[in-house]
Amino acid sequence: MPRLPQLRQELTLTRGAATPEGAPAWMLHDPAGNRFFQIGWPAFEMLSRWALDDAHAIVASVNEQTPLTVGLADIEALVRMLRGQNLLVAASAADTSRLAAAAAASRLSHAMWLLKHYLMIRVPLWHPMAFLRRFARYAELAYRPAFWAAVALAAVVGLALVSRQWDEFVHTFHAYADWRGIVAIGLALAFAKVLHEFGHAFTAYRYGCRVPTMGVALLVMLPVLYTDTTEAWKVPGRADRLRIGAAGMLCELALAAFATLAWSLLPDGPVRAGAFLLATTTWIGTLTINASPFMRFDGYFLLSDWLNMPNLHERAFAFARWRMREWLFGLGDPQPEPCPPSRRRFLMAFSFAAWLYRLVVFFSIALVVYHAFFKALGVVLFVVEFGWFIVRPVVRETGVCWGRRHELRWCRETVRATALGVFALAVLVLPWHGGVDAPAVFGPLAAQGLYAPQAGYVSAQGPLARDGAFVHAGDVLAVLESPDLEHRLKAAQTEEALLRWEVDQQSFDQRLLEQGVALTKRWDAARESVAGLQAQIGQLTLRAPFDGTVHSGDDLAPGTWLPRGEPMFDVVGQRGVKGDAFVGEDDVGRIAPGDTVQFVASVAEMGTLHCRVSAVDRVNVATLDEPAIASVYGGPVPADMQPGTKQLVPLAATYRVRIEGCAGDRTLGRQIVGTATLGAARESFAVRGIRWLVSVFEREGGA
pLDDT exceeding 70 applies to what percent of the chain? Predict the structure, then answer.
């Protein structure tokens, strides 16, 4: 082998943590790129003898002075790694060409640069080493056991006191529903996050690490503070690295503990409000965001250090991809790295959980981005988020599998994958899905409620129908008497009689002659008033509108006073059922008059009704007149109650489908809520999804 290439002079080599198998390891640091490379014992021994500048001499020295056995092949592999990571001095035209080619390959197009910097960009703002050296002695208090004993005591006492005022604590959230509350929460979060980052910085400095920068990272245009603690990998002790990774969360938890205790002890005022904000934002932010190991936050680095597995995500994802390919295609690839079966199972379960977590988080971020900007930009950013984080990994893995299609052979795994693929394709493409399920309200075909037309009392002189009685059309159900109407009728009759006499005497009286036709018009108005009052008194006699059964909620008795509009009777016809179903705009086009309907009531003993669609409303309902199916009353139709009118307004376009022609002689005594399956043309889930996407684009494009 020719002379060995020269290493870059700024590289440093420090002792690192041992591998999970107990083998020693070292960290090779590239300060130019702030990169760390973990190397094993043989690579360390060869690099420590690099000054010999002869491969044979290095091999001989390592084999003689250590229990290791290395060869020229190991030297060549190490040189390839160093050259591939640009850790060697460029001393020839070939090296310069290679570096230029690598730079050109890493150069991004304008679109890709904008994409990467939109998704994640770090803006270093401060070099904190001088500050850390000056104030590190003041932070030593936080590393004493007595301090954390005080934090634990404050947390226990504070939570115990809050539990005694839980309703007041929870309802304090309502005081921050306006823009001032949002600003206050933002300030509290900013303070907590600054303390969080200083916790990382002071702890890293305490264990001998250099903290080059602190700044702001723009994660999908959302500012997030960060501290560069990359040199924590140089710390050999795993417990020390865990302390560096947990320092930020511990600072926030300490702040939350003291703030919770302060809220319980302070009187009402701005100071107590500030303590509440610090307590809630730090507890929630730490436990839900920073502690999650599925994103590259503190929880991830803590789990990585605890397992002693650098690059945990990449290694776990590699195991999951390997296992998925083997389960589907049986390629026979070796596992990505040797590890015990228990560790392998954990890594695969962790990777699938991380994929599911990221799917939810990234899709939620995409929705937030879409709604945070105007429509055109929102759609573009949504597509970027969804495509980059969700679609791109799937397409990339599909491309890898497709590129290895020549390695496939018929075996148990490929048969299983083919069967699953055919089944999934059939579920999506075949038009097996038929019918539309919709909430419905069914009741008697002929039913009418009778109400008190005027305030009055039940007369003892007339008949009074009882609950369950059968009546014919026109039968008297009850007679009401209204003293007010009777008094007004008598007064109107007296006035009408006087005006009639004056009209009769008008030709004989000069005073009446002077009134002319006005007197006659007054008499006509008086007669109409009498007729109107008599008609109102006639309405006090309640009659059955058709043959049917009387239903009365309360037993009415003679002399019972009733206000105007008070429900008195429900008359239900002998036979027949009708109903109304409420469907969304995506399904209303699939329903037509004459389609079959199967209604399953919420009352189990009722059975199934078989009916037909009689009509489909062309206009969506403006207000929902069936409270039982509204979401505000626990129903399935999303609706909101207007504060002024108390009307139920559907939150999405909802159409009424009218149902009649139910089979049999069945009747219902009251309205019953259930689910109606309306027969519709069969369609596939793929067609349904395409129609939904088209409707979304049409709606958003026209907004």
Answer: 87
660 in helix, strand or coil? strand
Tokens linked to 82:
């160093």
Q: Say if residue 51's pLDDT is above 90.
A: no
CA-CA distance, 579 to 676, in Å (whole number)? 9
Count CA atoms closer than 13 A to 674's CA, side-chain side: 23
Name the packing angle between helices 412-429 and 685-701 (round to 10°): 50
Domain positions in the chain: 12-106, 111-308, 310-408, 437-443+574-701, 446-569
518 CB-near residues (< 8 Å, 6+ apart): none
- The answer to whether the predicted template modeling score (pTM) of the entire model surpasses 0.85 is no
Instruction: Evaluate if residue 108 carries a pLDDT over 60.
Output: no
Q: Which residues contact 200 (CB under 8 A, 6 or more apart)?
A: 227, 229, 244, 245, 247, 248
Write b or e for each residue in 320-341: b if 16 or more Cβ atoms lie within 10 A of its Cβ, otherwise e: bbbbebeebbbbeeeebeebee
Q: Tokens for 186, please give them.
A: 């933002």
Stretch among 18-22, 154-158, 270-274 having the lowest mean pLDDT: 18-22
- The set of residues, in sequence order, having a beta carbon less than 8 Å from that of 550 and lying 6+ positions away, is 465, 466, 467, 468, 469, 470, 471, 477, 544, 569, 570, 571
Pick the CATH number of 437-443+574-701 from 2.40.30.170, 2.60.40.420, 3.40.50.11540, 2.60.40.60: 2.40.30.170
Mean pLDDT of the chain: 81
Cβ neighbors of 435 (< 8 A, separation 6 or more) are: 677, 678, 679, 680
Nearest CA to 384 out of 119, 107, 695 is that of 119
User: Distance between CA 600 and CA 604 in Å, rounded?
Assistant: 8
Per-residue pLDDT, 440:
92
**Main-chain dihedrals φ then ψ at residue 669, nearest 5 degrees:** -85, -10
Three-state DSSP state, 596: strand
